[in-house]
Amino acid sequence: MSNTGALEGGCLCGAVKYRVELPVKWCAHCHCRVCRRAHGAGFVTWFGVDRPAFHLHRGEDALRWRASSPEAERAFCSECGTPLFFRSERWPGEIHVAVGTVDEPAALLPAVNVFTDDAIPWNYALHTLPTLGGPSGIEPVSKPQS
């Protein structure tokens, strides 16, 4: 992954468009129950950037933020329903972007699994990357036995 340049992306219908200046802070597969439910997926791949690196080009009127916990919010496109962004008091000054919404997602390489205590047992991504879990979701844990 390049440390310079930018990534662009948006929702399925194109109502929301954004640009993110590189480098990203991190990229991870999240296995928490809330992410899985919000995206309807076995896990969700996110990357994080400092808020000044994030630029919303189009769709502020289509973007809807909803609380997903007392300290966090998730944004989706009100036109097509695409889940896009996450922000939380736990990571102040960051915005997290769903990798699936990036125009060129191959530019991002996930480096870790987080919140693995909630992971679905059949998820093979758990067997190839470092594994984090525990009460915080980001503590080192042993890899599952193959």
Question: Might you state the CATH topology name?
Answer: Metal Binding Protein, Guanine Nucleotide Exchange Factor, Chain A
The assigned structural class equals mainly beta
Q: Low-confidence parts lasting 5 or more residues at pLDDT below 50?
A: none
Helix content: under 10%
H-E order: EEEHEEEEEEEEE
Mean pLDDT over the residues? 91
Separate helix tally: 1
CATH arch. level architecture? Beta Complex
Question: What can you see in these coordinates?
Answer:
The chain has one helix at residues 33-39; strands at 6-10, 17-21, 26-30, 44-50, 54-58, 63-69, 72-77, 83-88, 94-98, 112-114, 132-133, 139-140. The two termini are 29 Å apart. It has 1 helix and 12 strands. The chain has one domain: Metal Binding Protein, Guanine Nucleotide Exchange Factor, Chain A (Beta Complex). It is mostly beta strands. Strands 6-7-8-9-4-3-10 form a 7-stranded mixed sheet.
